[in-house]
Description:
The chain is mostly helical. The protein has one domain (about 5-45, about 80-265). It contains ten helices and two strands. It has helices spanning about 5-10, 15-35, 75-100, 110-135, 150-155, 160-190, 190-225, 225-240, 250-255, 260; strands at about 60, 145. The protein has a two-stranded parallel sheet with strand order 1-2. The longest helix has about 30 residues, at about 190-225. The mean pLDDT is about 95. It binds fe (ii) ion (2 copies). One fe (ii) ion binds near residues 91, 118, 122, 172 and 208. One fe (ii) ion binds near residues 88, 91, 125, 201 and 205.
Amino acid sequence: MTTLAEMAVEVLTTADGRAKCAVSKRHAEAWFAARAAGTPLAVGTAAPPLHPARPARPELLHPRDVPRRRPGSPQGRIALLHAVAHIELNAVDLHWDIIARFGHVPMPLGFYDDWVKAAAEESNHFTLISDCLEAMGSHYGALPAHAGMWRAAEDTVDDLFGRLAVVPMVLEARGLDVTPGMIDLFRKANEAQALAALEVIYAEEVGHVAYGSKWFNWLCGRDGLDPKEVFHDLVRRYFHGALKPPFNEEKRAEAGLPPDFYWPLADGDTGD
Length: 272
Ligand SMILES: [Fe+2]
Ligand SMILES: [Fe+2]
């Protein structure tokens, strides 16, 4: 019988973006169908690759070498959506990786429900943005993309606390800060399809940050640790650089991230 960890590895070892997302959605449906029937699939353990399979294109470049384009032009908006598609595909792999990578850590079933749901949503995000790119005469893979996206996963490969601190609670929380500006940009450009896709992403990403915060707090509670202190230590250890204000305080609060978690790690903060 297939375990959830084996299903995760199948997603991680599928290279093509749309194919990866199709496998991801199919496995999420199987997981939730079994949960609804009261016969949950075994979580199991598996050996996820250190780097997930990805398509031959886009070409991956150091962030410094990725050309910047002005968002005021159609080409600039395509470049922006291309960068979002790259983030979403990476997120599909990140959410399955946390399932496969830490299968040896006993967690309540709700932990898996949350990350399987998040992975299915990321798969939908990638598909929505790929559809936008194709409607605009481009496609995922047409432009170069950042090479460093998987770094957070590699750095926290043996630390579940660190993975939760850096991936959902720092990187995905950053998404909450920057997405409203993108939504504005596409609204002003009358790009209805991209606007609708970004609004779905913005709404669902709050949930992913909340899952991170929930399970990070749960683990700290299990071990009798102060979550804020542990968060600060882990972000300083694994995240390269300071957090960048302005922060979306409202959405971060909705996702269970209080200001005293992130402000002491911010650019220019002298406290703590
Ligand atoms: Fe997403
Ligand atoms: Fe996400």
